[in-house]
Amino acid sequence: MAEAATMRAGSEEQERPRRSHESLIATAMRLLGEQARGDQIALLAMLLQEKEMEKEFEIQLVMKDRDMAHAIQINKFKRQLSYVTQRYLLEKLFFKVFSLVDSQDRPAQQALAKLPTSLRKRFKQKSLSMTELNRLLLANHKLRIAAWEYVGLPRWLQLPHFDESPELLCGILSEAMHSPNGAYVYISDQAPAVEAKFFKNLARVFRKELETYNQDLAEQGIQEEVVEARRTAATAAPVADASA
User: In which domain of life is the source organism classified (predicted)?
Assistant: First the structure.
């Protein structure tokens, strides 16, 4: 019985194109009338089929355009969120590093003890800016290793300079302003490998998921937004002039 059902299913699959073709033939006969020759009917049926294929292709193009527009908007949104989510992780990390002062971690205490008095005092007061702390960790290998082990990061993990995105380190710590509740941290698919590895490990430590966004699509979305804003401003200007 199963074999018979399979054969029937296969037969139905084979009949579907014929029924479609027969339907086109019937439509052509109705349009041309009973006196039409067979070759005329066949030609019209073929033209009708081509028309249907063109229509289906147009529908597919529309769907593809919609999917692309959706992808552009999604990636633009992720790009906009990338700064906040990355900044949040950096602040979490630096707050954790500052807490070394109150820890009983011996390597950390030894590294801190070797800092200049004024710098150690500011470190204890957590008054170093994010840029200053980033530079300190880049320059002080022993302190960075101690901090990484204390936080739970691999010893070998490089700390990026963030030369391409200095705004991530702008100002002092302000965790209350950058505390997204989302589960994701967004980073460009064109980000340097050092930054990608760094944020991947930070995301793991602070229980976030790292997700990349398509930089090209995000930039396209931003450009489209700029063009639309200019178009809106240009159309609004004559109206304002007329009312004046």
Answer: Eukaryota
Q: Count the alpha carbons within 13 Å of 35 in the hemisphere toward its beta carbon.
A: 0
Place of tokens 């380190």: 169
Pick from 171, 174, 116, 170: nearest CA to 143: 116
Q: Supply the pLDDT for residue 93.
A: 92
In eight-state DSSP terms, residue 191 is S
Q: At what angle do helices 130-139 and 141-151 cross, to 10 degrees?
A: 110
Distance CA 226, CA 158 (A): 36
Q: Which of 79, 88, 142 is nearest to 115 (CA)?
A: 142
Does the global pTM surpass 0.85? no
* H, E, C per residue of 158-186: CCCCCCCCHHHHCCCCCHHHCCCCCCEEE
Q: In this structure, how many other beta carbons lie within 10 angstroms of the beta carbon of residue 72? A: 21
pLDDT band per the 50, 70, 90 thresholds, residue 77: confident
- Give me the long-range contacts of 7-11 (CB less than 8 A, separation at least 24): none
- Extents of the domains making up the chain: 73-226
Q: What is the pLDDT of residues 36-70, one digit of tens each?
A: 676 666 766 676 666 667 666 666 666 666 777 88
**How confident is the model over 97-122, as a mean pLDDT?**
88
Using DSSP's 3-state secondary structure scheme, residue 103 falls into coil
Beta bridge partners of 186: 211
Residue 188 host element (H or E): strand 184-188
The model's pLDDT over 199-220, given as tens digits with 9 standing for 90+, comes to: 999 999 999 999 999 899 888 8
